[in-house]
Amino acid sequence: MILPYYIIIPLLAAFLITLIAGKKDNWAVILSVISVTAMLILSVYSFITMNKQVVTYEMSAWPIPYGIVLVQDALTSFVLVMVSIISFTSLIFSVQYIRHLSMDWRYYALFMLLVTGMNGVIATGDLFNLFVFMEIALFSAFALVAYGSRAEEFEASFKYAVMGSVSSTLILAGIAVLYSATSNLNMAKIAELIPAVDSKVIFWVGALFIAGFGLKAAAMPFHAWLPDAHSSAPAPISSMLSGVLIKALGIYVLIRIFYNVFNAPEIFMKIFLVLGTISIIIGVFLAIGQWDMKRLLAYHSISQIGYILLGMGIATPLGILGAVFHLFNHAIFKSLLFYNAGSVEMALGTRDLRKMGNLMKILPTTSQTSLIASLSISGIPPFNGFFSKLIIIIAALQAGLPWYAIFAIVGSLLTLASFMKVQRYGFKGDTVVEAVENKIGWRMNSAMITLAVLCIVTSLMIVPGIKEVTLDPVVKVITDKTEYIQLVLGGMHGN
User: Fold this and answer.
1) In whole angstroms, what is the distance from residue 398 CA to residue 405 CA?
2) Of the four, 25, 54, 141, 150, which is 20 to 30 A from 73 by CA?
3) pTM confidence score
């Protein structure tokens, strides 16, 4: 039974780092790398071997619904793989990047707590422990955003903490109302009881959860905290926030609750359609006017989250397929773009696109991988972003929603224009840069190359024969509430 180790391993690493790390970060780096490597191996192994199984783990042998239960199905495994890949590459990238700021072991302890919280949110089968793990992840994220200890970073962290507290309060209120109506916190048990609950209660709880988890996901109009937090954090933390945190704490939970627990009520699907479309268009318009590279990327996170919400709102198997595929793809190309921005900032000391120039000669790996990531996020074939956006657009047309398909196409064209600006000014400008302040080492380059390769390789997930074992089981878990209830409540126990 490997399910509890997704939480135990990073939590133990965080504890050991605080216990044995000295003034330098050597032991912290070693323990962190061992931890994220182990989680990457475990998550990929379980994703490949589990197929359509659902595994539950009852803590201290207390049965459902009395004890704490962890659940691993295809959706859990899929998101855990995504988090593990980005955690691994972000940590490898961090070793040199953070050392050019300081050799502080506390960064790695907080990083491990952040991973603990995210893995806990993904693996837990009950709402209260989901809330607890969410808070662990958030407090780590607040501290990591302020890691550089500059005024703008403290301000961004404070704004993030305030908005995070508001969203957590809304979520806790929703959990309390749901518990009062069902006397249960286990999600599968609540799903079983929900048909007998007054529909007005479901609407109120749904509204609280959309506002609360919508803030975590930074969908419009709940996005105000994101541009400052993502642009102020160290680059590998920006990649964690944009690549996986807003998905694990926001999108993943919305999918789990609104599909597996509430059974996708039509009114909430329409709300997802509207929020997704607004996020796509306004997010990209706000991004295209930015000259700060990290801030531009942060606004694009809002726009790309809109595509995922749009796919969720279409609510057909094809729409959900596009949503989960784009969830994964966005984690890869957006994390890579933040590595590119961090690499440029470390080498040149600026994030202003107008001050960069032609970087092909002095930063060849950064320049070439940024081109791949730009094409991926813009939806250019054969990169992964093209296929997930195309699926969402086709799903919208098949569902009789042509205007939503048109907005998705317009958003993608504006994204392409925005990243043409990034490439033209940031990497292929007129000024030839001859020297750098800090050299980019092999660890940072290898993290960027790994994700650039994945931008191409993950396109194969849509190929027949591969799709049936990677994406289809995830879609089936999301669309079949009844099977989720039956498999969790009568699942394969592994105490």
Assistant:
1) 10
2) 141
3) 0.94
